[in-house]
Specification:
Helix content is 86%, strand content 0%. It has 3 helices and no strands. It is elongated, with a radius of gyration of 16 Å.
């Protein structure tokens, strides 16, 4: 769990949601808003996938 909390990719993706939320509250409701949320979701998914892949690689390198 610690690897997720201190990973800079995860942190930047989570802090990025604040801009999307502000745009949702203040901006127009059109197709660009949907794309912003999809983009943010993909960013979080890629960041989580990267952390999981790095953890698997580190486990294989350390060995038994």
């Amino acid at each position: 769990m610690r690897r997720f909390l201190f990973n800079t990719s995860i942190l930047s993706a989570l802090f990025g949601v604040f801009g999307v939320v502000q745009s949702t509250r203040r901006g127009p409701r059109d197709w660009r808003l949907i794309l912003m949320w999809i983009s943010w979701g993909l960013t979080v998914a890629i960041a989580v996938g990267t952390v999981v892949k790095d953890a698997q690689t580190n486990e294989l390198e350390e060995g038994p």
